[in-house]
User: Fold these one by one.
Assistant:
Number 1:
Amino acid sequence: MLAHIQDIVKEAQKGGYAVGAYNVHNLETVLGVARAAMKAKSPAIIQVSESAIKYMGLKPVTHIVSTVAKNVAAPVPIALHLDHGKTFNTVFECIDAGFTSVHIDASYLPLDENIKLTKQVVELAHLKKVWVQGEVGAMVGGHGEVGKKRIDIPKAKLAEVIDFVKQTKVDSIAAAIGTAHGVFVNEDVDLELLYEIKKVVKIPFVLHGGSGIADAKIKKAIKQGVNIINIGTDIKVAFSQTLIATCLHNKKETDPRVLLTPSIQAVEDVVVAKMKLFGSAGRVNFGDIKT
Ligand code: G3H
Ligand code: ZN
């Protein structure tokens, strides 16, 4: 059974830690995250982007995540979330498929249109008890991009974030605060902007672009009230670099399982490290759970 994201995030708010929202791309990355959650005794959010859904199919990915959660990681709460849904249709297909949380990312639109679309999504999603994440100030970069320097990392305007949350009634908020999708030497968390946002906006703050940020900064951001941290690129890099190395060392191997198993392990290792860093590790007491 998949957990509702609301229950996972409420515990994180109470405990003053963050839960990772990990982007998955195939069965192997789902297994890596679920095994990590078991090993670290940590809750986890598994999230899929529109392109991941296009690659796997909505029904297959929904079934893979719920079946793996139930059979590989039953004692730990795992929620399924749509990441950067750009349209009303995508969001509602995911809600129909059983997602308990969706991200409507209309940050590519002018603010008033972003507010209008996000409001429509919130009104309908709430009828189905689904959580909605909204976004102000578009994130730059791309999942999996690894670059030296990114000159344009725009930031959201404080007044716009406050107005957006008030008008849309979203359950969680993502806003550009200095990080980018991918790994870049000059991305950083603007702790002052985060502080100003959190002073007024009390709903959970979602830090996008979690890969490539120094551990010390991540810890400070969590102290200032970040409850969800998105990790995409670090998973892609761990999976793919391990796969490339495994294939190069086993050029005659014909069994995909032999070639893919080290990549599952690499994802598990990266995610366990994130769970420890975010403070979500050790939060599930297996002794309290009847399996
Ligand atoms: O939406 C997903 C995240 O924001 C991923 O960012 O690739 O920098 O970890 P990242
Ligand atoms: Zn993102």
Note: The pocket of zinc ion (ligand 2) is lined by residues 84, 139, 181, 208, 230 (CB under 6 Å).
Number 2:
Amino acid sequence: MTGLDEKLVDIYAEVSRRDPRETEFHQAVYEVLNSLGPVLAKHPRYADSAVIRGLCEPERQIIFRVPWVDDRGTVQINRGFRVEFNSALGPFKGGLRFHPSVTLGTIKFLGFEQTFKNSLTALPIGGAKGGSDFDPKDRSDGEVMRFCQSFMTELYRHIGEYTDVPAGDIGVGMREIGYLFGQFKRITNRYESGALTGKGITWGGSQVRTEATGYGTVFFVDRILAARGESFDGKRVVVSGAGNVAIYAIEKVQQLGGTVVACSDSSGYVVDENGIDLDALKELKEIRRGRISEYARAPARFVEGRSVWEVPCDIALPCATQNELNGTDASRLVDNGCRLVAEGANMPCTPEAVRLFEHAEVVFAPGKAANAGGVATSALEMQQNASRDSWTFEETETQLADIMGRIHDLCLTTADEYGSPGNYVAGANIAGLIRVADAMLALGVV
Ligand code: NAP
């Protein structure tokens, strides 16, 4: 616990003691608390009023059984989660993750991060996350639908436009949101569009929601580069993952003049020195749901089971999953000349990797700021649902770019104000805290 302000040591100890096995949650809490010393020096009320202690404890945690029948007629039992972390700023809001690695600790770390991220957007949304240890990979459409229907048969009683608004995350894209929304509509007998985001355009979705997280991350990086008198033009970029965030990060980098030379999935990575062929990647991942090894286009090569971070680049965008970029990867990136890292995924860089970047003066943009474009556009989808309106792609993308620009500037001015100029981690953690903590104080002990 070195480095923590003395007022925060007990809070962190309590978090670790209460849920000793939730290591990812501890990591996320520590990373935020570690930035808060200067805030407590200036505003002791946040520690004295127990607001920070409250921020580390979810308002509500729901765990439920999800029974369903597979294509062979065998009953399968999965576990479902929804962690409603903080609703001081608005209805709980955050995605659903379907992946075999999901535990309560994973969902708590994501819900904690989400609270700060949503606060940074300055939109009226609280923080939450949910999901299941269900693995949609290699499941038929029918199996995925039956799983989603069973999942929603419990979840529906906890969500709603004014209560809790889930969206997608790893393993949950528009197909899953469709099945979830269909079951929600059937059970409640209400077309309550604002109860879920990430919907299809023709049934209540927003333009740009699919692209939003990847585009938003790249808008954030573009702003960092502009602040330094640079641009994407001619930059060599490596992206990890080949899912929703990665694909649309690649698309926007290409639009802004950069070249993405590598991307990955959990089986390995592909390097394509001519730049990733985005149409081929979309067809492979969004339509065929294939493996990255099938991305076959000379002179591209597939490297099995190794880290994509061994590919030299100017800019690295980790867009896959938590703790996918460790100290060894960070050292290699630094040695190969990487100067900027922005997290499209949630907490993809280990604490050691972040320390190494800081030490080497590599600009580092944390996920809670850099990937906030997804949830921000979800909030824009909620606005359109509430007003029964739909905006054009251009209008929505302009709003997304403006929001990312504002988050960028807020991080920088806050970091400056609290004595860590240029430190996006400190800026994001402190600015995220202040908005939600002030709301919690205003609402009393609830
Ligand atoms: P997704 O569409 O399911 O894609 C995830 C991608 O990451 C897949 O290509 C997956 O490969 C790959 N991957 C998973 N584990 C990996 C590993 N250990 N090494 C290399 N690649 C790995 O999910 P997503 O929506 O893009 O989400 C990616 C990240 O962004 C997550 O951290 C998520 O929380 C975060 N995020 C998403 C959104 C959003 O709007 N979707 C918003 C904010 C943050 P396999 O197919 O082989 O597993």
Note: The longest strand covers residues 75-86.
Number 3:
Amino acid sequence: MDRQILVLNGPNLNLLGTREPDVYGAATLDEIVHDLRVVAADRGAEIKAVQSNVEGELVDALHDARTWADGVVFNPGAYTHTSIALRDAISAVGLPVVETHLSNVHAREEFRHRSMLSAVCVGVVCGFGPTSYRMALDGLLDHLDRDVG
Ligand code: DQA
């Protein structure tokens, strides 16, 4: 059966395309997800995309993923830098999660240099715009391939 991947996006990422395009680029979230579906299909994977501006809904989406997903590509937006609840949710569900950012958070304000989540993720990709998501998906699928057998 195809691998099932949750592509989870946090606050303000619904505004991609119009939000600070100099930082986040011109692509909309729908375009990014569409591109990911094509890449995923090529590798025998299926994507379900969820976006929420609400921290608890992101926690719920991670809990729900436990029942059907093989792994998660997760751009937690600003919650990256603050959320112990999301960190605990990632630890609790035990799924491989790749922390993903469009911008290079380390080249930006100091408060973006710290992630509450990186330590419980299998990897982190940042700085490549929409390509970050593709790299995260590829990395996650390679990770899952290595895990099998
Ligand atoms: C972001 C980086 C975060 O610092 C910021 O709060 C976002 C987007 C990124 O994709 O570059 O909302 O996660």
Note: Residues 12, 75, 77-78, 80, 101-103, 105, 112 surround DQA (CB under 6 Å).
